Amino acid sequence: MEDNWLSQITAEHETRGSKMVISGSEGVGKTSTIANMHDPLFMVTKGEQSLGALQRSGQIPETPSFGSFQDWVDVKSALRELLGAEKKPNILAIDAADGFEHLVWDFVVKTKFGGNLSKANDYGQGWKHVQHEWREFLDLLDQLTRKGIHVVLIAHLEVKRFIDPENVDYDRWQPALNKSVWALTGRWADHVLQLSYFTHVVDGERGSRAKARGTSERVVYCTPSPTRVTKNRLGLNESYSLGMSPQAAAEVLNSLLFS
What we know:
Blueprint: E1 19-24, H1 30-35, E2 40-44, H2 50-56, H3 72-84, E3 91-95, H4 97-112, H5 117-121, H6 125-145, E4 150-155, E5 157-162, E6 170-175, H7 179-188, E7 191-202, E8 211-221, E9 239-243, H8 246-258
Parallel strand pairs: 1-4, 1-7, 2-3, 3-4
Antiparallel strand pairs: 5-6, 7-8, 8-9
Helix pairs in contact: 3-6, 4-6, 6-7
């Protein structure tokens, strides 16, 4: 059969859900913001308690979630079931990404190294298997986005040193994941956003050092910066105010990401 690629050239592309990472430090409102968006479904690990605590305190509406995941095989099974389900959520929230990374690591140590942690750590061999599993995980999430579901990986933050081959090295905020896992995830995501609070720097008194004073007003950062790992594919501005509550933050993000 002759090749017929030229006849398939088109400017039309498939419509799918967004793939995003939303990061932020503890208490900034990552979970509560997503829970206040339209029709979310959460996946949480055994160590993540924020969803239940927020719901019991009345800070978020009743929010559906799978049972707490303790095994990596169950995570992939649940995603496959969701793919075949007749009713699908608007948003699938993975809370939090590092908790799911730990499940993968435990699975790899158990199944590939007989539970021997030292062997898994030797020469980074364990992380090569983790990468393979994580690719399968991201592929399942891709399939969900092709069903119209928006996928949000909620991530904690950490400060990491960035090695700049053309300039001096510097520290920056980035999602708290192993470097090999983040390399896959950062490329996979359409948007990597960071939630924070507005911080004002004021001059020190009598020659003392300047001081940073935080506020309760939230902000989302959307574009790349030397101090943070962020990006978007929507032409968004550097940052947007999210107001003083998770409800206000959810409204702003809805208008930015899904309008």
